[in-house]
TrEMBL record:
Organism encoding this protein: Nocardioides eburneiflavus
Main subcellular localisation: membrane
NCBIfam families tied to this protein: sss
GO cellular component terms given for this protein: plasma membrane
Name recorded for this polypeptide: Na+/galactose cotransporter
GO terms for MF: D-glucose:sodium symporter activity
Pfam families: SSF
Entry keyword Membrane: yes
PROSITE patterns listed in its UniProt record: NA_SOLUT_SYMP_3
InterPro entries recorded: Na/Glc_symporter_sf, Na/solute_symporter
Membrane topology field: Multi-pass membrane protein
Amino acid sequence: MGSDTLIDATWLDYLLVAIYFGFVLGIGVMARRSVSDSIDFFLSGRSLPAWVTGLAFISANLGAVEIMGMSANGAQLGLPTFHYFWVGAVPAMLFLGVVMMPFYYGSKVRSVPEFMLRRFGTGAHLVNAISFAVAQLLIAGVNLALLAGIVRALLGWPIWVSLIVAGAVVLSYITLGGLSAAIYNEVLQFFVIVASLLPLTLIGLNRVGGWDGLTEKISAASADASSASDAPPAGQQLNAWPGEALSGFDSPLLSVIGIVFGLGFVLSFGYWTTNFVEVQRAMASDSISAARKTPIIGAFPKMFVPFIVIVPGMVSAVLVAEMIELKDGGSPTGGASGDVTYNDALLLLMRDVLPNGLLGLAIAGLLAAFMAGMAANISAFNTVFSYDLWQRYIRKDHSDDYYLRIGRLATVGATVIAIFTAQIALGYDNVMTYLQTLFGFFNAPLFATFILGMFWKRMTPTAGWVGLVAGTLSAIAVDRAAAAGVFELSGQGVAFLAASVAFVVDIVLSIVVSLVTRPKPAEELRGLVYSETPREDRTDPHEASYPWYRRTAPLAGIALAMVIVLNFAF
């Protein structure tokens, strides 16, 4: 191994990674055989069962956000990071399945922007399609940057070479098989990720003396911290509520409000209910019942993911020498991108505690996670670009083969652009901060427009695009004000505040504009507005005959009860 490598892998580790890549590319080749038209490429022909789309739903999100971002948060902030799952994910996933999925699936739209087109017309559709496409290119860059960091850590290659190689691998299997290749790979990747991170968690906890040993070491490190340390007090790291370390508020009450409203409502519902990366997986299922159950099935593994993602980050912060120095205010070198950052918490823990062989499995798991995340971004981008931008506004009325070619070209273009947007992500010590900022810009105003338009039939097409633009600009203004030093919030507080402001501005402005502009006729809103959509259009007539464990509402009720118990337990 060269001295430039971070991870000292052996031939066995490389063999395991090579076998895994062989499976990934093989799935892409097999999926290509089933791609005969654009619906096959972009939506898997709407033919997949709920358990497949449910696991893909989670795996698509189990990329850079979950693995490196959440372990970085765990190392830096501790247990309050659990809120991203139990407050900031599961409730919104259940709402998507129970309330919103019937509108997506029943209207037979191919993307979230297409739904916006039917509800609000071309203005809101164009704004949403462009903002979504830009967001996917930026977020794909995050996944690619972290994937390239793994390649650099493993092989010692320069970061730009690692970016190109990592991008080429992801590009190959999406271009071959479209969404089916992405989804079946995501199911495989889910199991690989769990199989690699669970041993890392157990071995790491064993090294620090179990959960009690971990809490003692965090308390001791906090007591001995130097004045240069920016780590929160031990009490804040070891208790999920009220979560001041995460929200940035000194007041426990304001912290709880910020987490519940900013993260739990605006950012969470904005992401899970309107982000086409996730919704696209449910829309690939074979019935409205399966589409509704997709996010609900995904909620069960989702609530336990933090134990194999956040806990290793917390272990790394008290066990790995470089992480201990970083948390105490130092600037160690030797991370995946040069200087050690919180993003390196998991990689450095793998280096220190995993034996060869298991190390190869863990590396394959991380590569799987980043490819899953980037593939999800790229496959969502190529759908929106091809249908919602190119076909709608540039070249109408061409053959299906033509738009299929455009989709594949868009995939190549997006991958090349992601190599450049990855440079932005590399500038952040904790990618979770960057990602939450992006979600505040793009998802929060979209959710405000979406939820108001779905439940208030008086909302007008003009209000749709005006609210979206104003919400996005207000979120950017809050973020830039914080960057200029106008006010200061630690943790992810600025992202929570920007998202909350975007939501409120969008809602208020949409109501005002709606009251002075003309709404669409009620007969055009069937399938788009709750009050104008008959119950039979929102449910599967066969679901009542299913046993309870295959019905949407009972599964959602069980998941909600479990996540409430977890919130109280921690």
